[in-house]
């Protein structure tokens, strides 16, 4: 759970063909330009406040966090590294506009959500043993596990501080939503870790885990700007529902990329989720199907679950390729691509229950399209 190169992004179905929302024309440059502008606006408005928040941290946590965000390199020199897609800040600003407020009203929410998101990335990278993120060594690899833990904790604390400093009733409402989303995010990470050593996980369990781990924070991002803009709970809840389903679509695409993504695009190793024994949606769907491929896959994964991580790291590429092929043969790749589309449609439908400006609705739709049409 990366900066947009939307013109070249496309997730793929089981045949390697683009997975494109039904209403979107391939090569729709107007939609691509619109999303690029939304993401850039979110990055431009949130980053100065994000930097100011990080500057509050005591040394060396401030420089460790700056490295994580891509602002400096490992030697402390200014850097223009990939700082992430900025989907969450874009959502927070659009959320404020959905409530009829100026986008700037959503900036504290955008910053708070980004801080929590990056708290989770710092800890996830350490727990998962990931050595690369966004084509660079992860924080724990460069600065050590202790700094990864401490800086993650500090970012989490800063998120609440940023919101509560506003001193308004709406800020209190926003903080409650962010705190609830953070608890669910942590629940999801705990579920994800526990599943790695189970022989089998159902699709329902996997969707619950991913709804917590990814959906909860995107749901918060999609509603927090509206709350800060004075929206009532009905409006905020509908936007939260949009974000929740968008998060599930986002994670379904991530799960496809976690097995079949191009390492040069994702910034991670080939077969990264298989290397970590993750029971992601393609795996769960494959194991829940009938047939020889599912049976063979279940046998291999049951044996894998009993191995130590050191033994598992000795696998060669052919062994990971075999598991990926069995997942595809058992229908896991196709089912997950279809699930991304189902969640995308449900996200858009959630907007139908509220009155929001037409332009904002179009932009929320374009952002949802981007989530399911990407390569990283």
From TrEMBL:
<feature type="region of interest" description="Disordered">
    <location>
        <begin position="1"/>
        <end position="32"/>
    </location>
</feature>
<dbReference type="InterPro" id="IPR000092">
    <property type="entry name" value="Polyprenyl_synt"/>
</dbReference>
<dbReference type="GO" id="GO:0004659">
    <property type="term" value="F:prenyltransferase activity"/>
</dbReference>
<dbReference type="InterPro" id="IPR008949">
    <property type="entry name" value="Isoprenoid_synthase_dom_sf"/>
</dbReference>
<feature type="compositionally biased region" description="Polar residues">
    <location>
        <begin position="1"/>
        <end position="11"/>
    </location>
</feature>
<protein>
    <submittedName>
        <fullName>Polyprenyl synthetase family protein</fullName>
    </submittedName>
</protein>
<dbReference type="InterPro" id="IPR033749">
    <property type="entry name" value="Polyprenyl_synt_CS"/>
</dbReference>
<keyword id="KW-0479">Metal-binding</keyword>
<keyword id="KW-0460">Magnesium</keyword>
<dbReference type="Pfam" id="PF00348">
    <property type="entry name" value="polyprenyl_synt"/>
</dbReference>
<comment type="similarity">
    <text>Belongs to the FPP/GGPP synthase family.</text>
</comment>
<keyword id="KW-0808">Transferase</keyword>
<dbReference type="GO" id="GO:0046872">
    <property type="term" value="F:metal ion binding"/>
</dbReference>
<dbReference type="GO" id="GO:0008299">
    <property type="term" value="P:isoprenoid biosynthetic process"/>
</dbReference>
């Amino acid at each position: 759970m990366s900066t947009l190169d939307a013109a070249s992004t496309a997730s793929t179905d089981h045949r390697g063909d683009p997975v494109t929302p039904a209403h979107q024309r391939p090569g729709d440059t107007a939609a691509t330009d619109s999303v690029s502008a939304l993401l850039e606006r979110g990055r431009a408005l949130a980053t100065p406040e994000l930097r100011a928040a990080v500057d509050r941290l005591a040394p060396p946590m401030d420089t460790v966090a700056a490295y994580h965000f891509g602002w400096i390199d490992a030697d402390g020199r200014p850097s223009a590294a990939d700082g992430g897609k900025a989907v969450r800040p874009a959502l927070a600003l659009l959320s404020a506009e959905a409530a009829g407020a100026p986008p700037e009203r959503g900036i504290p929410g955008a910053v708070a959500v980004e801080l929590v998101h990056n708290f989770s990335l710092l800890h996830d990278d350490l727990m998962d043993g990931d050595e690369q993120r966004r084509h660079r060594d992860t924080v724990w690899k460069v600065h050590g596990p202790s700094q990864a833990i401490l800086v993650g904790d500090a970012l989490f604390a800063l998120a609440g501080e940023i919101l509560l400093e506003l001193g308004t009733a709406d800020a209190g409402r926003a903080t409650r939503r962010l705190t609830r989303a953070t608890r669910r995010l942590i629940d999801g990470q705990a579920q994800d870790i526990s599943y790695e050593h189970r022989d089998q996980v159902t699709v329902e369990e996997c969707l619950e885990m991913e709804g917590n781990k990814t959906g909860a924070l995107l749901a918060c991002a999609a509603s927090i700007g509206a709350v800060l803009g004075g929206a009532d709970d009905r409006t905020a809840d509908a936007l939260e529902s949009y974000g929740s389903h968008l998060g599930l679509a986002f994670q379904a695409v991530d799960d496809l990329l976690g097995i079949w993504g191009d390492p040069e695009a994702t910034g991670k190793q080939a077969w990264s989720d298989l290397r970590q024994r993750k029971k992601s949606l393609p795996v769960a769907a494959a194991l829940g199907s009938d047939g020889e491929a599912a049976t063979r896959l279940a046998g291999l994964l049951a044996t894998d679950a009993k191995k130590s991580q050191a033994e598992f790291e000795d696998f060669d590429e052919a062994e990971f390729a075999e598991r990926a092929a069995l997942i595809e043969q058992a229908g896991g790749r196709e089912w997950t691509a279809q699930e991304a589309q189902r969640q995308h449609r449900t996200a858009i439908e959630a907007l139908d229950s509220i009155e929001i400006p037409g332009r904002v609705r179009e932009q929320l739709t374009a952002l949802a399209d981007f989530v399911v049409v990407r390569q990283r």
